[in-house]
Q: What sequence folds into this?
């Protein structure tokens, strides 16, 4: 900018110019902004580094470096305006989308939440059991000054042993000094007090002493045992580990009957098909998509939901548009009084929060107590009837969505009608066209050009209109005889939400993500066709 | 309720509109008045009745001495504020309302600003990747955040491991997630508006030594106030209504909820029993968006149609 008239002259201005800022105040503001950004980044890096979390660390470093570079360089003008929104977009919108696509190829969900190492650890430790005839000990949890845990064990004969995480060291007379809570063992371990117990509860309960050392012979063990495990705060028992993980082959072997379990799609499975729980997260290719298309328990409800989603979105756009347009045309006459008041009242349903109105309608349409049935003196199951594939609840959902949405259509068609040049209609009238002809041949076509893109957007919105469906019917009434939570009024998004988050039948993030991905492609394709036909994409300039 | 049938009003409309009229005629009388103007009042009245009928029931329920759903009637027999008292005593209602206003308002303002910055770049600067950038924003809109609900949930659970203050179960986490939607429809809306601000203004400012930052903050933003209001408002209303992400990400703590998730949990547990208090909450909770709409109606109409027509 220094070649322009009015180029900066003073030192401060020159510095400001060198650093890509227009003025000293701008420069200060910029340094304040970058200072805050870098301070936060430093904090984040110092938190993440010791945890060895490389991915989030890389994100922080790259984002901060990009911000610093863009705002200190003079050659990055468009990015100065685009970067903050773009970073937010990348982190909280694009990456979740990509992650969703990835989860769609995994078995993530109830029973497959842990990663492979965690799952193996859990399986092995779950396989440690105490046989019925095992020796049981009275035990006292101990700790030394370093915080290491140990146990003072007393077997049924009254013999005392010390158990540490390394094994069972020899304990001689005189190694135990003092009585009760004041005892000191080997000059090192003392009983954990009640106050300390709470903090280390989980640790103590998971503690076990490997059976090694000179004292093994004195234990009078009848069985092959590996460890003495804590059972309660004051008991411990000899335990047997049944399963073993082989790091070389990656298999888990049953030490008792020799069964070998290999990892198949995130679950350790034996040849006879028996499995070990929990499973782990694993990519399973197109299995989720295959399940959607082939598994009878999912395919059936999925296709019903799929068809209903389209029907719901199309019916919603159509009904709201027709009613909104009809009202807009009716009120579009300057000779009418109270037009502004009427218009304001008509958009009240649209102006109310939609989550609220969906919940309100749920009450109004209640079968036994709802005001609508009470006043009509009937008991119509508006939201719960199973008859004819839930035809009545479907009608109710569309009706409620009409109530919610016609105000919006009324607003935009009113706007478009008012922006329409009077002269065209005038000319048609002079040429002898009837009111109906003017409406059909002139007003409607012009109107559709103006609001066409909004109708497409409305379709895309209603395709994912979670609030109306979920808050009104919860997707119900349930479709009978399916293994997935699916209802007659469920649309794809509420179906996928219930797969991922509805309790009861467990969570299935993988399947839900696969369905989300399918929804994306459907909406993208239909919107593309729509935009193409209305030529919106042509005149981007 | 005849008015609940959309087809009848549409059909009426068409039939009556078929009767043409002479716009130079100042005041038709009698049958002709009915044919040309009078029916419009009837259609308007039916429309208003359809629009307000549920609202009437809610107002009635909120002041009814019977708190349960079954106590509904057309004409109130007694009026009481007990339901409101019950609502305020048993739920942190105003905390929910404040949470909603805080999160939705903060995110809407931030989104408006981020969006305006991006729109300025798209409207005024020429650079490689401009058209693809605009199309990408449109494409990303096809995959709204609520579709990625599972991924966002797992994402925030992970963040909790290192930054608990902005992870799962925090309002800051939800706020940040909402920022992800900054570049979107609103960017297009604003770009369309910025395009209508005469370029000569920038050019003369550039000649006078102004930077793009100054042009943006001192010329474009003040001249675009109406569209900023509309974009901010639409964004606020959208986020105020947002249910799915809030319900997933805010955790179980009662005081942490927004109005949407809080009232849902309140009414979901005992639907019929708490109808009166819920109706009261619904009315108060509707006031912020309702008032904004009524006062800013004209801006909204122009904003919505501008976004559609200009692209």
A:
């Amino acid at each position: 900018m220094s070649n322009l008239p009015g180029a900066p002259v003073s030192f401060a201005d020159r510095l400001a110019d060198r650093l890509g800022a227009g003025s000293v105040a701008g420069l200060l503001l910029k340094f304040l902004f970058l200072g805050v950004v870098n301070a936060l980044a430093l904090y984040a890096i110092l938190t993440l580094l010791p945890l060895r979390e490389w991915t989030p660390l890389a994100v922080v470093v790259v984002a901060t470096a990009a911000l610093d570079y863009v705002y200190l360089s003079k050659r990055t003008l468009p990015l100065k305006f685009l970067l903050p929104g773009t970073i937010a977009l990348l982190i909280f919108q694009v990456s979740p989308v990509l992650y969703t696509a990835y989860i769609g190829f995994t078995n993530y969900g109830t029973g497959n939440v842990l990663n492979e190492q965690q799952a193996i650890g859990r399986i092995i430790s779950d396989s440690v059991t105490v046989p019925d005839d095992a020796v049981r000990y009275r035990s006292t949890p101990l700790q030394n000054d370093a915080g290491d845990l140990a146990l003072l064990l007393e077997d049924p004969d009254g013999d005392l042993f010390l158990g540490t995480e390394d094994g069972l060291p020899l304990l001689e007379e005189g190694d135990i000094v003092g009585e009760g809570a004041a005892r000191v063992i080997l000059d090192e371990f003392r009983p954990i007090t009640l106050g300390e117990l709470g903090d280390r509860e989980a640790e103590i309960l998971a503690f076990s002493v490997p059976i090694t050392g000179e004292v093994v012979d004195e234990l009078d063990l009848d069985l092959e045992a590996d460890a003495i495990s804590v059972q309660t705060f004051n008991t411990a028992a000899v335990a047997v580990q049944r399963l073993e993980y082989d790091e070389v082959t990656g298999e888990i072997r049953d030490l008792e009957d020799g069964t070998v379990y290999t990892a198949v799609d995130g679950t350790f499975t034996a040849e006879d098909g028996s499995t070990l729980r929990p499973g782990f997260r694993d990519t399973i290719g197109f299995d989720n998509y295959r399940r959607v298309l082939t598994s009878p328990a999912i395919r059936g409800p999925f296709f019903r939901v799929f068809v209903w989603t389209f029907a719901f979105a199309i019916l919603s756009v159509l009904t709201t548009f027709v009613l909104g347009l009809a009202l807009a045309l009716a009120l579009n006459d300057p000779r009418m009084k109270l037009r502004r008041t009427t218009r304001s009242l008509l958009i009240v349903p649209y102006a109310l929060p939609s989550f609220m109105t969906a919940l309100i309608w749920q009450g109004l349409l209640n079968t036994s107590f709802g005001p609508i049935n009470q006043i009509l003196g009937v008991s119509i199951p508006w939201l719960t009837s199973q008859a004819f594939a839930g035809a009545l609840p479907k009608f109710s959902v569309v009706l409620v969505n009409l109530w919610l949405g016609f105000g919006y259509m009324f607003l935009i068609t009113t706007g478009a009608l008012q922006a329409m040049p009077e002269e065209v209609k005038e000319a048609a009238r002079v040429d002898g066209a009837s009111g109906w002809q003017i409406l059909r041949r002139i007003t409607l076509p012009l109107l559709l050009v103006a609001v066409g893109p909004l109708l497409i957007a409305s379709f895309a919105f209603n395709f994912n209109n979670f609030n109306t469906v979920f808050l009104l019917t919860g997707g119900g009434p349930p479709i009978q005889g399916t293994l997935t939570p699916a209802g007659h009024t469920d649309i794809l998004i509420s179906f996928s939400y219930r797969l991922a988050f509805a309790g009861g039948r467990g969570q299935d993030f993988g399947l839900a993500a696969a369905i989300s991905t399918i929804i994306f492609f459907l909406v993208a394709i239909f919107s593309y066709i729509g935009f193409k036909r209305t030529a919106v994409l042509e005149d981007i300039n | 309720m005849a008015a609940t049938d959309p087809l009848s009003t549409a059909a009426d409309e068409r039939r009556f509109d078929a009767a043409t009229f002479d716009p130079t005629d100042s005041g038709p009388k009698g049958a002709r008045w009915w044919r040309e103007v009078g029916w419009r009042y009837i259609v308007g009245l039916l429309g208003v009745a359809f629009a307000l009928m549920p609202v009437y029931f809610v107002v009635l329920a909120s002041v009814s001495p019977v708190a349960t759903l079954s106590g509904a009637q057309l004409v109130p027999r007694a009026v009481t504020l007990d339901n409101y008292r019950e609502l305020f005593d048993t739920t942190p209602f105003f905390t929910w309302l404040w949470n909603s206003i805080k999160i939705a308002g903060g995110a809407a303002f931030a989104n408006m600003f981020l969006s305006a910055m991006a729109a300025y770049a798209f409207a005024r600067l020429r650079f490689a990747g401009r058209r693809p950038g605009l199309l990408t924003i449109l494409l990303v809109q096809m995959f709204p955040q609520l579709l990625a609900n599972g991924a966002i949930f797992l994402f925030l659970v992970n963040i909790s491991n290192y930054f608990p203050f902005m992870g799962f179960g925090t309002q800051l986490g939800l706020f940040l997630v909402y920022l992800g939607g900054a570049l979107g429809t609103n960017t297009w809306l604003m770009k369309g508006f910025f395009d209508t601000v005469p370029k000569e203004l920038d050019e003369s400012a550039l000649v006078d030594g102004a930077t793009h930052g100054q042009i943006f903050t001192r010329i474009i933003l003040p001249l675009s106030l109406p569209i900023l209001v509309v974009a901010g408002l639409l964004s606020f209303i959208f986020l105020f209504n947002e249910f799915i992400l809030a319900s997933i990400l805010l955790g179980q703590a009662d005081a942490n909820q927004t109005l949407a998730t809080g009232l849902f949990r309140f009414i979901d547990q005992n639907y019929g029993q708490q109808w009166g208090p819920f109706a009261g909450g619904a009315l108060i909770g509707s006031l912020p968006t309702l008032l904004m709409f009524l006062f800013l109606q004209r801006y909204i109409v122009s904003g919505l149609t501008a976004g559609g027509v200009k692209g």
Notes: Chain A touches chain B through 128 residues (CB under 8 Å). The longest helix of chain A spans residues 296-330. Residues 1-8 of chain A have pLDDT under 50 and may be disordered. Chain A has three domains: 11-103, 128-241, 291-533.
